[in-house]
Amino acid sequence: MASVGVWNPDTKLDIEMKRKSSFSLLGNDQMGRPKPVAATNDHPGQAEVKSKLWQLMSSYKANDKETIQKSIVEHLEYSLARTRFDLSQEDLYRATAMAVRDRLLESFNDTCTWYAEQDVKRGYYFSAEYLMGRFMHNALANLDLEKNFKDALMDLGISLEELEEKEDDPALGNGGLGRLAACFLDSMATLSLPIWGYGIRYNYGMFKQYIEDGRQIERPDFWLGNACPWEIARPDITYPVRFGGHVEETCDSKGQWCIRWTGGEIVQAMAYDNPIPGFDTYNTNNLRLWRACPAKEFDFDAFNESNYAEAIEERRRAEDISAVLYPNDDKWEGKVLRLRQQYFFCSASIQDLLREFIKKTGRQWSELPDKVAIQMNDTHPTITVAELMRILVDVQHLPWDQAWDLTTRTCNYTNHTVMPEALEKWPVEMMQEMLPRHVQIIGEINRRWIDALQAKWGDVPAVWALSLFEESDCKKIRMGNLAIVGANKVNGVAALHTEIIKKETFPDYYQWHLAQGNSDKIVNMTNGVTPRRWIHVCNPILSSIFTKYLGSQEWLTDLNKAKGMLKYKDDDKLQTEWAEMKRSCKTILAKWLKETINLDADVDALFTWISKRSEERRVGKECRS
């Protein structure tokens, strides 16, 4: 639980981009792991102590059977407080997960240190969803430790496969959007690219599906109910996020005119890190999720007056933000909560990444696009454009033109929605009440944008179609338009999708940029899946067949090499192995159905039916050709 009570929304102090625990000026915190270098403020003998610490931390955990067993047992007793007489499968899973996480953290810490030392350009993926799947099997496969842990557990009479079934699936995503985000994180780690994900640590998914009496039943998906052994709570990485309040004109410390957003409500964003290991690489990246906490635990005066509901109202309002993935937005209140969610995680993420950027001594803001890239996954995070401008202009006091140049060279936008009417639009009234300064900033962006359009095209209907504001009975801000105006690159997730964006979804924007000689403003990035998780981990028998016939596991990092299987398409031996693989998977499914919902499935009949359908499709295809 994060400590609280530091941020007062009415304070005149600058609080953006400052961690609560230190409340230091930006960039003054010490970094990372201890190193044997004496600092000027070290006490006598401190350098020697640091050197000893560094030596103790310089080695890695071994991965032999005995060491792995010892790691698991130590976590059982010292992390979970269990005895050898009081163990459950859930305890064994959690202890094993922690043993795997120990090894992930070694790689994670080294990766972060390497990034800092090399001063690499970093990418940050902003997404409201991450459909990650279970962590343990994927982590073991990517770390190449699956056999080591399987053998170590088997020697203790424990089945790794049974333990893996005890893991809760993180309810952080819903569909293709979240799956794309998860696959990108896996791919970036595997390619050893310095890219982190940012999102929300939802307590509940949309729902968890059960089958009762042959019918689907939905219940709350409280995936954190048994705690998540993979995440690392970071109470020291906590940022303030403001809602409401008012905007005032004032002067900065140098006496220069500026605008300050103050008052309103402060919510704390506390970080939880989830290491993302790459496959066949030393690299481990990170998915940083934000949990919403109140600025103070409860109203002590109201509590003493026995007004208990009022005493915890602030806590409830804050915790609502990270409570549920996609709250129902049929009503105004639901829309408000969604907007709060989106701004909450974007603001915290931008503060965090800018704080990392400015850490380096001598860093200039002009370096921002050369060191930082922000990818906005769909319209949910597109308030990022206005928030980045607010921090650069209001907090860092950069001139507007410089701040806009940096923003438009740093941000990028992935479009998932081809229907213009499905793109997010927020009522100006709602935005004005919740984010008054951002409405001003978006208004100024739009004024300058419309002026540029009219200077080239005149006052024609196409100009107002490109406006960031929709003039109707309820005036709204078009978040898709804001994303395109504020992005360096816009991409679709398939070649056909990208062409639809150019010709149907945003045709006027496309024509405008073509006229400016910018033909690659809208580009394609084909959506895909990771073969590591969705073949190698999900279906290890199929994976072994690919590896056997292709001669190596290189296809797991270059899926184009799977085309080598085509030369065996008429091989009877392969066809037999392939059919047996499919039959074994159906057998596993039948067993699961029996154990889970007491349903008897005839594997032979199912397999025969599937084979018949496959043959019918093959014959039909031949006839058509």
Describe the protein.
This protein is of the alpha/beta class and 625 residues long. It has 24 helices and 16 strands. Helix content is 47%, strand content 16%.
Features:
625 residues, 16 strands, three-stranded antiparallel beta sheet, nine-stranded mixed beta sheet, alpha/beta, globular, 47% helix, 24 helices
Helix content: 40-55%
Mean pLDDT value: 88
Number of strands: 16
Q: Total number of helical segments?
A: 24
Largest sheet: 9 strands, mixed
Oligomerization: single chain
List strands and helices in order, with pairings.
Elements: H1 46-57, H2 65-79, H3 89-118, E1 122-126, H4 136-143, H5 146-154, H6 160-164, H7 176-190, E2 195-200, E3 205-212, E4 215-221, E5 232-243, E6 246-251, E7 257-262, E8 265-277, E9 284-294, H8 300-304, H9 308-311, H10 313-321, H11 332-358, H12 368-371, E10 372-377, H13 384-395, H14 400-410, E11 411-414, E12 425-427, H15 428-434, H16 436-457, H17 461-465, E13 469-470, E14 476-478, H18 479-486, E15 490-492, H19 495-505, H20 507-515, E16 522-524, H21 531-537, H22 540-550, H23 572-597, H24 603-624
Parallel strand pairs: 1-2, 1-10, 2-9, 10-11, 11-15, 15-16
Antiparallel strand pairs: 3-4, 5-8, 6-7, 8-9, 12-14, 13-14
